[in-house]
Amino acid sequence: MILINLLPHREAARKRQKEQFFTQLGLSALLGGIICGAIFTWYQGQIATQQERNSFLQGEITKLDIEIKDIAGLQKEIASLRARQTAVEDLQGDRNLPVHLLDELVAQLPDGIYLNSMKQENQSVLLVGIAQSQERVSELLRNLGNNSPWLGRPELVEIVASNVVASSRRVSNFTIRVSLVRPAADAPTSSGPAVAVPVAPGKV
Q1: Contacts 24+ apart (CB under 8 A), 42-46
Q2: pTM for the full predicted model
Q3: Contact 171, 164 (CB under 8 A)
Q4: Closest by alpha carbon to 116, among 182, 65, 69, 162?
Q5: Lateral strand order in the sheet of 124-131
Q6: Would you list the DSSP string of 147-200?
Q7: Averaged pLDDT score across all residues of the chain
Q8: Which of 172, 180, 179, 182 has its CA nearest to residue 155?
């Protein structure tokens, strides 16, 4: 006997296919949502971890900035103390300069030269005096430039010939500028006897 199916089997097959399609589509969407949620959660965790690291680093940077400011303040204090120490050492060294200056002038001043005045300005000394001849002035310049560890760089500012009224002798009025020098080690600067500097009447 032959059986004939008169039901709309094609429509039923299409319906089953549609149901399977929508079921698979729903499952795919659900799986995609789960995967996206997992990825989002993982990224959020990574972002939160990085933010914690950034906060920690920012806190450490703030601490370092404070320490750097403290170090900068200490460096300024150290520089100030060094400047004061240098100033004190300079003052201690300079307090003996007049003694060395007079001692060197005694040792280096040749015969036939008389000083009228001597004026110190910082590390420069201006000498004004009278010489019996220009050769005496040249000898004084050589002595100040070569033989003295406390005096250096002598410079002849002016030399003028004139006559002494009492004896009608010709003399040379000179002006010399010389620089004070601090030797590396304080040592005896001259071996000559300590005698008075020949100074003509006038301001010294």
Answers
A1: none
A2: 0.44
A3: yes
A4: 162
A5: 113-121, 124-131, 170-180, 151-163
A6: S-SSEEEEEEEEEEEEE-TTT--EEEEEEEEEEE---SS------S------B-
A7: 78
A8: 179
